[in-house]
Amino acid sequence: MAATKFVLAFAICRLIVTVGFTVVPVELLRLGIEGRLSVETSDVEKASADFGMLTRAVPLAVMEPGSAEDVARLVEAAYESAQGFTVSARGHGHSINGQAQARKGVVVEMSSRKRMMRVWEKGRYVDVWGGELWIDVLKATLEYGLAPKSWTDYLYLSVGGTLSNAGISGQTFNHGPQMSNVYELDVVTGKGELLTCSEERNTELFHAVLGGLGQFGIITRARVALEPAPHRVRWIRVLYSNFSAFTKDQEFLISLHEKPSKERFDYVEGFVIVDEGLINNWRSSFFSPSNPVKIESLKSDEGVLYCLEITKNYQHEDADIIDQEIEAMLEELDFIPKTVFTTDLPYVDFLDRVHRAEVKMRSKGLWEVPHPWLNLFVPRSRIADFDKGVFRGILGNKTSGPILVYPMNKNKWDQRSSVVTPEEEVFYLVAFLRSAVDRQALRMLSDQNRQILSFCRDASIEVKQYLPHYATQEEWRDHFGDKWARFSHLKALYDPRRILASGQRIFKPLTAATSDM
Ligand code: FAD
Known about the structure:
The chain is an alpha+beta fold. Helices cover about 30% and strands about 20% of the residues. It contains 16 helices and 18 strands. Strands 5, 6, 7, 8, 9 and 10 form a six-stranded antiparallel beta sheet that branches. It has a four-stranded mixed beta sheet with strand order 1-2-4-3, sandwiched between helices. Bound molecules: flavin-adenine dinucleotide. Flavin-adenine dinucleotide (FAD) binds near residues 93 and 503. The site of flavin-adenine dinucleotide has 37 residues, from strand 3, helix 6 and strand 10.
């Protein structure tokens, strides 16, 4: 302990000399934590960046917590410090616009260590550390033949990070987002209190934190709902040249959410194909070069195709009836004849599909590049206008990444959570997941994002950003609409000094050393 304090004292003195901060270190030095507090260049560098590679903010120090109590001690010290300093939880740093950064504050590396997970077989839930990655949750629960119900497309994201946004994928129409599939949370508030919250206890905090963009507390434990894990997945893609046939089928498929499992698919997504190069986009390689149908020959006048992506989960013992069930369901759909592409794989391989693409992209140096992503929730009634103005308008044939389009049922989203979605019962996710290989591409794609947002404004399409990013508080007020008053009231209650998640740039911290807004 004495040696650790000495090393830390030395490191902090070096920092004072190098950077000139004199405010924070005293409190940090007195913390007495189980974990590790670091001012090493490599740790600070890592915490200054994220997947987006668009924003950089250098923290004063980085903490790898040994326990929830460590997190509580740190936040309490920040809250009580005369000058104050900001604290941001960082999951896996997969934000786009610096949301997990803390300029001149402390970044808590929540995913720095693997933790014990406790699976409660009878209750069908698992208790996990807030920084656990979903891939590890999957591996641990599969040992009991169980798995979480609702997913993201990519599993190298942290539990706390996705619950702070929502956590969506093709299962959302059926189970709701990931945040609708948790029973209980442990949360460190902005005052440094460690509270358990659920539907029954500290209810207001529970709902505020879900989709709360890290504003009200740091999630240190989540109790996640489980179901029996399917053994295999039949993964199907079919093509459309007509947008209204495509969305009509998607909406039909998600309307079956109350039906018995054998009468509906388990996952419904879709994507836009504006150029053939993207058909095997980074989310997965699927279509083989020996496609029975030449994709080019199917293109409509505007050169845009739409791909519906659906899956059916099954157990080994049902292998001989699965074909019939799928056949019957496909008959209801109106895709281009003979464009059914099918593959069959273990459940875990389906869920972890994006990671395989990541490995390939990394090997070509195409993963660690800037990602000017734009994710929008578009109301169902305006999705055709969006198609015309954006997919067949603004985009041209320049996209530089997958464009996902799929609908969700609002009744699966708890309206008491902090997330905002469009008013309508059905809304679409439209996700532009682009990579910019050089400065010119970055400029072009960022311009395109601006054009898409202006188009929506001018055409009065009331979109809501998912993984939102705004420059001013006025825009945030607009984003939250009716929920703003409650959101800012709860902020004052649970994080009165506005210490937490300042990288979201929603509230200006009441500290001397921070200038995130
Ligand atoms: P970070 O980026 O580290 O943090 C995000 C925000 O949450 C920050 O404000 C941070 O302070 C806060 N935070 C982090 N941990 C905690 C905690 N324990 N308690 C409280 N606040 C916390 N999203 C989907 O919904 N569906 C997808 O299919 C999907 N696919 C993706 C694929 C890729 C390749 C990438 C890069 C991202 C994808 N995302 C998807 C987005 C993802 O949900 C966000 O990046 C999200 O922020 C989670 O990433 P993270 O765990 O690294 O969190």
